[in-house]
Amino acid sequence: MSSISRDDVAHLARLSRLAVTDEELDQFAGQLDQVLAAVARVGEAAVVDVPPMSHAVPLTNVLRADVVTPSLPRDAVLAGAPAAEDDRFRVPRILQEEA
Amino acid sequence: MTTSRTDLTTVDVAELSRLLTTGEVSAAEVTRAHLDRISAADDRLGAYLHVEHDSALAAATAVDEARSGGADLGPLAGVPVALKDLVVTEGVPTTSGSKILEGWLPPYSATIATRLADAGTVMLGKTNMDEFAMGSSTENSAYQVSRNPWDLDRIPGGSSGGSSAAVAGHLAPWAIGTDTGGSIRQPAAVTGLVGHKPTYGSVSRYGLIAFSSSLDQAGPMARTVLDAALMHEVIGGYDPRDSTSIDAPLAGLADAARSGADGDLRGLRVGVVRELGGDGHTDGYDPGVLARTHEAVEVLAGLGADVVEVSCPSFDLALPAYYLIAPSEASSNLARYEGVRFGLRVGDDGSHDLDEVMALTREQGFGPEVKRRIILGTYALSSGYYEAYYGQAQKVRTLITREFTAGFADVDVLVSPTMPTVAFPLGARVDDPIAMYAADLCTLPASLAGLPAISVPSGLSEGLPVGLQIMAPALADDRCYRVAAALEAAQDAARGHRLLDELPALAGAA
Fold this sequence. Notes:
The complex is a heterodimer.
Chain A (H helix, E strand, L loop, with lengths): L5 H10 L6 H18 L34 H5 L5 E2 L2 E2 L10
Antiparallel strand pairs in A: 1-2
Chain B lengths: L12 H9 L5 H19 L2 E4 L1 H16 L11 E5 L26 H8 L3 E6 L33 H8 L5 E6 L5 H7 L2 E4 L19 E6 L2 H11 L17 H9 L7 E5 L13 H16 L3 E5 L7 H16 L20 H12 L2 H13 L6 H24 L2 E5 L15 H5 L6 H6 L3 E9 L2 E8 L5 H19 L15
Parallel strand pairs in B: 2-3, 2-4, 7-8, 7-9
Antiparallel strand pairs in B: 1-3, 4-6, 5-6, 5-10, 9-11, 10-11
Helix pairs in contact in B: 2-3, 7-8, 7-16, 8-16, 10-12, 10-13
């Protein structure tokens, strides 16, 4: 099993949309390396022909009846948003200036 | 004998129900007694993140008025309750212990909150918890420390540590907890309470803030087995709003608790799990915890149960499997906190684009344990590592489930300690994630297999409570209640009082 480097943690933090600090990178890299070493023990299990289990309840295609039911009121939902405008969620720009 | 207001906070729910329905006390009196107790003691215990003073009194008064008007309200109307702060409550602050949801007022209520309100219970407030339920000591709360009423310098367990502190400290007669890897059972064990994790899918997850969706379950935390069963009957059962909800009737849980208290366990087959504190597997276990567990099993045998040892070798891998599966699911679930639809937003000053605002918001809004788990889960799910980590953990989950199935072919229930140790001191494990995770060692197997499991007090070690865990097959939650009630009744009778009667009085809470 592999270990996890400071650069790995920085990359994973970017994928996870976490603007971590340098101090956090140092701290997390050490801690995650330890955690990873501990959880890597799952590799000891003999699992040839053992199917993976994602869920305790075997379920397939849980569908509800195709009928209209009430939704939450728009204003009640927007009231919880950090920014709303014209009855919509307001988001920061999604493209760079030079794009 | 008259019941003073202070006494009302020490009365269990079954008795409160009787006092309320016979009119011996009013719902307003009961609620006010608990609000007074919260005012007097919660600065020491730190159990609540939010208290609903005015609305609780108003709801209690409404119950009294309806009852005096002759309305048939049901037996629990007027009983106060506390909810863990990841239960979404319309118009009432709900943070999941995180700064990223500070100030958020949900636009709807969880199914279990609605069911408790429909039963006429009165919500006292929302209890503290590890951020997004990630922790075993409640020290990962972004807001405050919660303390164990048995020793204020020790943890109340976690992640439902606000609920355990509230119920054991008599700041609520009972409370909702949630359990992903042990977060109902372990805090119940270390505070001398009863805590039950229901069969996965038997209590609705609609409106519970998600941590690890294939594991999360809500359940009761109470002072007696019967009280826990009564709450479970209110919140349990099919909910079309939860696509993993099981459409099957609940077995009679309160009936099981009452019949268990009769103390006849003849014909019951009890399996003691070797890998959870048995021979060759005692590293990390307190001798006192093992002694109380052994004595509790002897009590069950004395009531007529046949006791055998059961070996489940894969349980040794439950902890590593859990700490891959739960962070993986969390890394996905917590992607919804993007600073757009609800909660915190940081850096929206025109100079940052959406991606940067998301990263700044999540950096400021999440605490260190949440970040660690998101990063670990992202790693475990990334291509190149998926098979070795997440995929392998899912296969271990199958092995654990198969060993439960094989075990339950020979026995009716499996038992173990709930936690390897008693409550540890605050701060003892905060800088050591691996040591913190070990607190869940005994509770993780039943979580991964989706099985019901209860923690019931088995006595004290070093003056601190110890819990016995009783696990049962899927949808056989009634067996947990029956066996737990038998142990509780036998030990209470032998002791001459309840374990919680030995709780040191809280200074300043006359």
